[in-house]
Specification:
2 copies of one chain form a homodimer. Chain A is of the alpha+beta class. Helices cover 35% and strands 21% of the residues of chain A. The interface between A and B is medium-sized, with 35 and 35 residues.
């Protein structure tokens, strides 16, 4: 069994869980290496304490499951099968008395839960999500290689965006050009809806890109990322289009100082809250404490938002191999919105930024 | 109360449902006019038999809820509130003895369900989804106006794609150009991942666009749609790049005949299965019965896949105001993949296609 599955099995032993039945495509991918979008059809993976796991998936995907390297049993179902009955049988072959089952309670819907509890009416259902979040938080060498490449593509996207800035173009023109170049490199999915926001639009907390034209003296905010082989990158840069005024410069400088200062203390053992508080103090000292309304950052990997959460109150200690964003921002309505975001890896003695586009204010 | 809410209330009376608590953004939008992506925060709408409904949403969205035209109560919650307690209080003010609650069992997750059942431990929970699917199936005048416009943009996207076809370009080049032009018109979201598949790639049931170059003699399949003001369009056209061979032509002609023939019988009272069977017979008669592996079509509106489902076995009768796709296809591995898809409105005496890009084989 893979190391990831073994770690889950260890947790199951500690908590007397007989079966862990995973149904989100993200966690099935993480544990099995098989990525599949089964939509309304059942995709699941069952893990046991000391017995071989199995996958269940629609028949048309069974070949891909094997191709992806899964060496244990694949139970396949057709549209006329009852996949829950097949699941019950495959579990029954492995464990005769199922008392405790763990599932993803944030992912499984009520309809499926009712079907599942109907099969095991006496079982207790626990959530496996907390443990899975913990496992996914620390990345291995292969995951880091993919994340590095995804971050390089995010850097490239900012380069394209910077080159596209010119008088009269709209936010959507620039956004379209950025995504066009990524698609030409074969990127078919962004981590989230790309943001290109100019001037006052960047200062609204819920800005969406539109047909506003960029003007001389605007700060233009780019926030984007790509999905590469199942892993997400996420970068924000704010560029100046023409000369900006003193207050815009002051805001930019405060955000950059906050970003660099919190980044500088990243190493194993430091807590998430220390990072957030460091950036928050720097911004408050510059007089903009009321204009930094969000957490400092979030973990990323298979999901663009995962653990650890870099908030003011999270006591979690950093560990080598964690990857998260550091993205302080200041948003002053009718003046400017500035955010600077890197994807950061915790190394044995410090950190490495995986996104590398320059952060000194670039005037175009 | 709006007509949509009244219809839901009538169903609640017939089924003795005291409270219907809706939490999917699609159905909240459909019933209230308020579109909001609350992510992990609670967005909900409670409907009663004869009492005013209420919305519950994060505080930062409450202003938008009112702006969207919602004239009933808005209960707002902050990140330190327990939104489930607030929901319980707001329900308690309206109904003292809650025995039956309907929810969206395909949408609500187990974690939320446990929080909700904890508040009303004696209540029975039914699914409201079937009724909501039925309501959404028949479109009103305002919905049709939006769908028409979304379909015009889908037609435009095919025009762009056709103009982009030239030797040496890849599927992703063409896809990128199509989405670029849509973004420049302000379209920020596609109904689903755009497909541009050329030659043999179009003949695979699960093709994904990539870096394959188009070649003379290829059939190029486009499948795409846009989201406009919350409503989805969906079109497929297959174009010839250069002269094609006799078998490709034969396949194209069979698909087109099947599409036109099933379309021609659309009117109120005809069943979904009659449509599917009509297309299926035509394709079987051409000798390709084994190469049409999917249903004829699906309803569309706020979701790109909704009711009615146009399958071989669905006895549902068409009604004026229904909108769905008709999209027969033939996929012969290593030879060709052809699909032709329109979005179709059922009118009082027949039908109207909302997508209007020509269907006669276009050779570029």
């Amino acid at each position: 069994m893979s190391d990831r599955i073994s770690q889950l099995s260890d947790w199951m032993k500690e908590n007397n869980v007989d079966v862990c039945f995973i149904t989100s495509k993200e966690n099935v991918f993480y544990l099995s290496g098989f990525y599949s979008e089964a939509h309304e059809r059942l995709l699941g993976m069952a893990v046991f304490q000391d017995i071989e796991p199995f996958l269940i998936c629609p028949g048309m995907d069974a070949g891909n499951a094997r191709k992806s390297g899964w060496s244990h049993e694949v139970v396949s179902h057709s549209d006329t099968d009852n996949p829950w009955e097949l699941t019950k049988q495959a579990i029954g072959k492995r464990v005769s008395n199922v008392r405790t089952i763990s599932i993803e309670k944030e992912h499984m819907n009520v309809e499926r839960f009712e079907a599942f509890t109907h099969l095991f009416p006496k079982a207790v259902f626990l959530s496996a999500e907390e443990k899975l979040h913990q496992l996914r938080m620390v990345k291995d060498v292969k995951e880091l290689a993919t994340l590095r490449e995804a971050c390089q593509l995010a850097d490239y996207a900012i380069e394209v965006g910077a080159a596209e800035l010119s008088e009269g173009k709209t936010e959507m023109d620039i956004l379209a050009a950025v995504e066009y170049e990524l698609k030409r490199k074969g990127i078919s999915e962004m981590s989230f809806s790309t943001m290109v926001l100019t001037g006052k639009n960047a200062a609204a907390p819920h800005g969406t890109p539109g047909l506003t034209k960029i003007s001389r003296g605007d700060l233009v905010l780019f926030d984007l990322g790509v999905v590469l082989d199942g892993y997400c990158s996420d970068i924000t840069r704010t560029l100046a289009f023409g000369e900006i005024n003193q207050q815009q410069q002051e805001i930019y400088d405060a955000v950059l100082r906050a970003q660099l200062k919190s980044l500088s203390i990243v190493r194993p053992g430091v807590t998430c809250m220390e990072l957030d508080q460091t950036a928050r103090k720097e911004i408050a000292a510059a007089g903009y404490g009321d204009h930094f309304p969000h957490r400092l950052g979030h973990g990323l990997g298979i999901s663009v938002h995962e653990y650890p959460s870099i908030t003011e109150t999270n006591p979690l200690e950093l560990k080598e191999g964690m990857v998260f964003t550091i993205e302080p921002g200041i948003y002053v309505p009718d003046v400017a919105g500035v955010r600077i975001e890197d994807d950061v890896l915790v190394t044995a003695n410090g950190f490495e930024t995986l996104t590398k586009y320059p952060k000194e204010l670039k005037i175009i």
